[in-house]
Specification:
Layout (H helix, E strand, L loop, with lengths): L1 H8 L9 H6 L5 H7 L3 H9 L10 E4 L7 E4 L2 E2 L1 H10 L7 E7 L4 E5 H17 L7 E5 L4 H13 L2 E4 L6 H11 L3 E5 L1 E4 L2 E4 L1 H8 L7 E5 L15 E3 H5 L11 E2 L3 E7 L7 E6 H15 L7 E4 L6 H13 L3 E6 L9 H9 L3 E4 L1 H8 L4 H4 L8 E5 L5 H11 L6 E4 L32 E4 L12 E5 L9 E2 L3 H9 L6 E9 L5 E6 L3 E4 L2 E4 H9 L4 E11 L3 E10 L7 H15 L5 E6 L13 H8 L13
Parallel strand pairs: 4-17, 6-7, 6-8, 7-14, 8-11, 11-12, 16-17, 16-18, 18-19, 19-20, 29-30
Antiparallel strand pairs: 1-2, 3-13, 4-5, 9-10, 14-15, 15-23, 21-22, 22-24, 24-25, 26-27, 28-29
Helix pairs in contact: 5-6, 5-7, 5-12, 6-7, 8-9, 11-12, 14-16, 18-19
Bound molecules: 5'-O-[(S)-ethoxy(hydroxy)phosphoryl]adenosine.
The site of 5'-O-[(S)-ethoxy(hydroxy)phosphoryl]adenosine has 22 residues, from helix 12, strand 20, strand 24 and strand 25.
């Protein structure tokens, strides 16, 4: 860790924005905007004015019950009304809201008018299924228009959605659905991936055997493959049948600013995933404001975020913020390298994408194929590039800057989390950039690097990344577990939000994010807990104990390295390795990328029996084991 950071801090290149970038930018003076943001209540209240409220708020921020902050107290609003119906009354009515495309070359365009009709029909259908305000509705869907429609339909009627990433598998689906006590599940027959149709329905079928709260399973016929009716359980209803004859208007539920909007599960230090709960108005304000200013959104933009809607990036920046701003969002179902590694650039040219947001892992992957693919396409429509999900190494940054942006387009390295709901540390288009640094906190946000007592550390020294003041799109709790919310985020460093990342600040006040300080891995930008992987391993009949660490990987950032104690007499044969890989994949899905598996006789533990992953990591890296005084033996 130490070494990595020294390398980062030697990165001294600074890139100043071109004059025409500044001319176009909504915010032209970064420092001045940061100064404006010092008065957080005033700043965010101004931003909240952009929406149509049924009733304005009485109080911007309520801090009387920390850390359970409340924003826009007393306000009444509806997200779907603001993201969709509001635009139907303007000249955006016939503008494309959602441009869906997939790797097979299919496309579907929904204007704001068409989207509003679809959302309303499905909202009415949900009401007919008995869904009322506060009920939980889960989605296990690929990137398809019905996913966006059903999320918006939930908002319309005040149901709380909980989207499960379609790359997660049975074990993960069951755990999330049961924790949320979902009443409805919306799923599809399958998804397209690298020329194949991946079956989702059989995963749902299996999960459903263990999800007792679900009353109805709505099935989207997405791939066109025939569905075997004999395999239906009786709870299913097809999406197209369900909306047949439903009226295309629907009265929006008047939501309290603090009414729950969605739950999104993410990984933490323990095996049980955390149900991150976001509420309505603050989330809308934070997501829309950051999107507008970081991506510099204007009329006529064609915006593309390649993230999956199953993660927070997709929630905030594929669907909600773009629609709240009335822009056109490209929703792509496919991989960056299929049918060839020019897939992304082909779409940028084909549709004239103006703003492009992706993950460093995708850039690193595409870099391997050289410059011939980006050079084949005309990328001149691009005006802003951006990244999210993990630190971007300067090499990947430079490649992106040179070959995609033609050395003219600024790169927004956005740091944020499922919990934060919105970008918190990020440049703006007018900011001077340093490759590998997410630069500074967004206006209205106060971030710092501190020691374990909460004292700021000297510039250049590593410490814990904290957020010192509440922000509108912050999560409000972990679903059903206030205790864990306090324990995980607010207890170690009282008064501040502890992000779980290590960071440094340089002499210009720029943040350099170093990676997680807890037992969470980032594999190809996906967040996964070591404990989740360990419990997947030990649910295999031949595994007694497991310890998992992240191992550096040049493309994926990290992959899993597992240390296993096997049942007596068992040896780690090739057949068993394959079997274990399959098993973990079945439990967790393809996100759990296994690098290496090693058989061990013992695992390093503290006297109280906790696995010391730190020792395993140090051993793996050939480093000094550090303080081992708490080691059992
Ligand atoms: C990491 C994704 C460095 C970080 C939006 C954080 C980043 C975790 C960046 C949250 C970035 C995200 N630079 N690291 N620009 N963006 N991270 O919840 O470790 O899936 O804590 O949210 O991703 O992951 P999550």
């Amino acid at each position: 860790m130490e070494r990595d950071t020294d390398v980062l801090l030697q990165e001294e290149r600074i890139f100043y924005p071109d004059e025409d970038v500044i001319q176009r930018a909504l915010i032209k003076n970064w420092e001045e905007e940061i100064r404006k943001g010092k008065d957080i209540e005033k700043y965010w209240a101004e931003k909240a004015e952009q929406f149509e409220w049924f009733k304005k708020w009485d109080q911007v921020l309520d801090e009387s019950n920390k850390p359970f902050y409340k924003w826009f107290v007393g306000g009444k609003i509806n997200l779907a009304h603001n993201a969709v119906d509001r635009w139907v009354e303007t000249d955006k009515r016939n503008q494309v809201a959602i441009l869906y495309a997939n790797e097979r070359g299919d496309e579907r365009k929904l204007t704001y008018y068409e989207l509003s009709r679809e959302v309303n029909k499905f909202a009415n259908a949900l009401r007919n299924l008995g869904v009322v305000k506060g009920d939980r509705v889960s989605m296990y869907l690929p990137m398809c228009p019905e996913l966006l429609i059903s999320m918006l339909a939930c908002n319309k009627i005040g149901a709380i959605h909980s989207v499960v990433y379609s790359g997660l598998s049975v074990g993960a689906v069951v755990e999330r659905m049961n924790d949320a006590k979902a009443k409805i599940l919306i799923t599809a027959d399958g998804t397209f991936r690298r020329g194949k149709v991946i079956d989702l329905k059989s995963i749902t079928d299996e999960a459903m055997l263990q999800c007792k709260t679900v009353e109805t399973v709505v099935v989207v016929k997405h791939t066109g493959s025939p569905i075997d009716i004999s395999e239906l359980s009786g709870k299913e209803i097809f999406y197209d049948r369900l909306i047949e004859g439903e009226p295309a208007d629907c009265e929006p539920e008047q939501m309290d600013a603090e009414d729950p909007l969605f739950i999104l599960y993410t990984s933490g230090s323990t095996g049980k995933p955390k149900g991150v709960l976001h509420t309505t108005a603050g989330y809308m304000v934070g997501a829309a404001t950051t999107m507008q200013n970081v991506f510099d959104i204007h009329n006529g933009d064609l915006y593309w975020c390649t993230g999956d809607i199953g993660w927070i990036t997709g929630h905030s920046y594929v669907i909600y913020a773009p629609l709240l701003l009335g822009t056109t969002t490209l929703v792509y179902e496919g991989a960056p390298d299929y049918p060839d590694p020019g897939a992304f650039w082909h779409l940028v040219e084909k549709y004239g994408v103006t703003k492009f947001y992706t993950a460093p892992t995708a850039i690193r992957h595409l870099m391997r194929f050289g410059t011939k693919y980006p050079k084949r396409y005309n990328l001149e429509s691009l005006k802003i590039l951006a990244t999210v999900g993990e630190p971007i190494n300067p090499e990947a940054w430079m490649w992106y800057y040179k070959y995609i942006g033609n050395e003219k387009i600024p790169i927004m390295d956005t740091w944020w989390q499922t919990e934060t709901g919105m970008h918190l540390i990020t440049p703006l288009p007018c900011s001077p950039l340093k490759p590998g640094s997410a630069t500074k906190a967004f206006p209205g946000i106060e971030a710092d690097v501190v020691d374990d007592q909460g004292n700021p550390v000297p510039l250049g020294k590593g410490g814990f990344l904290v957020i010192k003041k509440p922000w509108p799109a912050m999560f409000r709790t972990l679903y059903g577990d206030d205790e864990r919310y306090i324990e995980t985020y607010w207890k170690d460093i009282p008064g501040y939000y502890k992000a779980g990342d290590m960071a440094r600040k340089d002499e210009d006040g720029y943040f350099w994010i170093q990676g997680r300080s807890d037992d969470v891995l980032k594999i190809a930008g996906h967040r996964i807990g070591t404990a989740e992987v360990e419990s997947a391993f030990v649910s295999h009949p031949l595994v007694v104990e497991a310890a998992v660490i992240g191992k550096d990987d040049p493309i994926k950032g990290q992959v899993i390295k597992a240390f296993l104690i096997l049942k007596e007499e068992q040896k780690l044969r090739t057949g068993l390795i394959e079997d274990l890989k399959k098993h973990v994949r079945y439990e967790l899905g393809p996100v759990a990328v296994l690098g290496e598996i090693e058989q061990v006789e013992k695992l390093p533990k503290t006297r109280s029996g906790k696995i010391m992953r730190r020792v395993l990591r140090a051993r793996e890296a050939g480093e000094d084991l550090g303080d081992t005084s708490t080691l059992e033996e």
